[in-house]
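Blackboard transcription, Thursday session:
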Amino acid sequence: MSIFSFFARPRSAPVARERLQLLLAHERALNGRSDLAAILQEEILAVIARHIAIDRDKVNVKLDRGSSVSTLEIDIEMPASVTPLKN
Amino acid sequence: MAKVLVVTSGKGGVGKTTSAAAIGAALAQAGQNVAVVDFDVGLRNLDLIMGAERRVVYDLVNVVQGDAKLAQALIRDKRVDTLSLLPASQTRDKDALTPEGVERVIGELREKFDWVVCDSPAGIERGATLAMRHADVAVVVTNPEVSSVRDSDRIIGMLDSKTARAEAGERIDKHLLLTRYDAGRAARGEMLKVEDVLEILAIPLLGIIPDSEDVLRASNLGCPVTLHNPLSAPARAYAEAVRRLLGEAIEVTMPMERKGLMSRLFGRKVA
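(Written on the board underneath:)
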């Protein structure tokens, strides 16, 4: 700790402002509709569940909302012996 | 023409009740006939802030359910005789309010008063939606802090979709009231600035209420801050905000504390 660190306190307000702008851009886009990422997640899982038995506890979903690009990462652990479901 | 004004925020603890009391009192001090209505059923506090907690007999729920007449439930302020309070019930819950009952009571209040100031509960549930339902004007109380700004954005969305005016395709006048503002911390980059909040929420600014010891002092004593100490910085800020509500086009200023030399040198802790 030097005496200068007192004068060079980090400015946190600009960070707050940027986080809010990004977050609200997404929340306003939703505006009553349900989240597209959540819909995609449900539908993708439903399609996979039609073919193999998946354990919901072994599904890992990561979402990162960016200003221009958002990524949805779905990580599904498949059983060692994948047995196709019989119709 | 009577105006119904809702004081709302989404987030709790940002200063809705303090602001409803101060705005109501300042409107009455400006000669308007005012009723302040507490919609926070189950957690009433406007009576306490107004210093009328020992005079409550009937409340909003009694009037809504037809158990008491409006005139019986209204409490006339002892300091300003054009100011009345309609308290909330402390023993019931928010489901005791019905949309039809609230509409009837607001209609009756419109006939008797120039201004009906509705103090909304926090949250986005029934109590908050009923408080904003019949509003012509909304004052969105926001602190310069991320969670408060986010919740205000949500409330602004509801004002534009869930109110009677919005459903009839009419406009509801929305104003931003920035409370607990510390100009020094904002200048040092430690707090969101007025311009930051305005840019994000994009509604016109009604006033900036500085963070001040006078607000707590006034609530300790049960007196709206504009009545308790009209020359204090927050009281002047509320009085200015009310002049804007009454249609005066005056510039928004940031009333400052009048500090002595010692507190200027050593900060507010000394005073």
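Lecturer's comment: Helices of chain A lie at 4-7, 13-30, 36-51.
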